[in-house]
Amino acid sequence: MKIATYTRGSRRGLGAIVGDTIVDLTTADPELPSDMIAFLEAGPAAIARAAAAVAVRGSPMALADVRIEAPIGRPPKILAVGLNYADHIRETGAVRPTVPVIFNKQSTAVIGPGRAVLIPPESSCVDYEGELAIVIGSRCRRVDRARAREVIAGFTICNDVSVRDWQKRTPTMTMGKSWDTHCPLGPFLVTVDEIPDPQALGLVTRVNGEVRQRVSTADMVFDCYELVAHLSTAFTLEVGDVISTGTPAGVGMAMSPPSWLRAGDVVSIEIDGIGTLENPIEAEGVLSGECDPGGPREPRRPGP
User: Fold this and answer.
1) Could you give phi then psi for residue 124, rounded to 5 degrees?
2) Is 216 within 8 Å of 249 (Cβ atoms)?
3) Domain limits at 16?
4) Low-confidence spans in the chain with pLDDT less than 50
5) Contacts with 171 (C-beta within 8 Å, 6 or more apart), sequence order
6) 9 and 148 together in one domain
7) What domain count does the chain have?
8) Longest dimension (CA), the chain
9) Any idea what the CATH number is for the domain that residue 173 is in?
10) What does pTM read for this prediction?
């Protein structure tokens, strides 16, 4: 199933995508949860029940009549992977890692499709990164790679928006990766049964319609199942955790000259079998000068 969190007026619900329509799951079956994490915690039985209810009692609404939100508005954890495509490693001049490079994005960075990614007044070095994201469906620890698929609820798309000068300022990347609005997720959660092989998906990122990234997920250095096994070695993965699996070559930082996102741009990321995540870019305030990869600077303060 393709499952979406949506709002219609003041009501928020959970729906199944059927073509260009959405079926509210609690209308189809009042015993189903209306929250994504609660729905995933109910396990595969809830997914099967939802599919049956939609087929028999579904009352579809046009997708155009609802607003699609991030599948999970506040994930327990957002774990992201750096340098996980060989072509991106080459364009950055980095050394190919022998173990996954892991960093955090804060959950307050999450926004849904169509919401604006904000360029902060503290930096104009704002970049896009189109990525396949894993959503965990079972609380787990020390999962063998061979069993990793069993703990995955499904997949979605992440734009790992990055403030490059803040990212480069320190050895850890969290501050450059976690600004508010800098983790678009969506449009849907596609359950694992609909993605037979997550390493056989095409990914395309466009800025204003121009293709910037095009890759197959087969080119990952560490595949989805290896990442789940690696992360769960150290700590418990919880239902609703998001693992963003890394970006391919074509980021704005690596262009000559660098091509940073600007107000008025639109970034869209398309992944086979999942859909398209699209977000406009807006300015949050008055920018204090030009991009300085050497480090962040203070924003311009309004006059008296």
Assistant:
1) -105, 5
2) no
3) 2-68
4) 295-304
5) none
6) no
7) 2
8) 64
9) 3.90.850.10
10) 0.95
Is 82:246 a contact under the CB 8 Å cutoff?
yes
**pLDDT score recorded for residue 224:** 98
Contact between 221 and 140 (Cβ < 8 Å)? no
Q: Please state, in angstroms and as integers, the Cα–Cα distance from residue 113 to each residue in 70, 180, 253, 296, following that order.
A: 7, 15, 23, 28
Residue that has been written with the tokens 């609690």 in this structure:
26
Copy the structure tokens of residue 103: 């960093």
pLDDT value of residue 287: 76
What is the predicted pLDDT for the residue at 289? 55
Pair (60, 180) in one structural domain: no
Q: How many CB atoms lie within 10 A of CB 5?
A: 25
Structure tokens at 11: 């009501």
Task: Answer yes or no: is 292 within a domain.
Answer: no
Q: 242-244 and 78-82: which strand pairing?
A: parallel
State the Cα–Cα distance between residues 252 and 125, nearest whole angstrom.
9
- Of the chain, the end-to-end C-alpha distance in Å amounts to 55
Coil/strand/helix, residue 238: coil
Predicted local distance difference test score (pLDDT) of residue 290 = 64
Burial 151-166 (b: 16+ CB within 10 A, else e): bbbbbbbbbbbbbbbb
DSSP string spanning 131-161?
EEEEEE-S-BSS--GGGGGGGEEEEEEEE--
Alpha-helical runs (H) found in the chain: 25-28, 36-41, 44-57, 86-92, 164-168, 174-177, 224-234
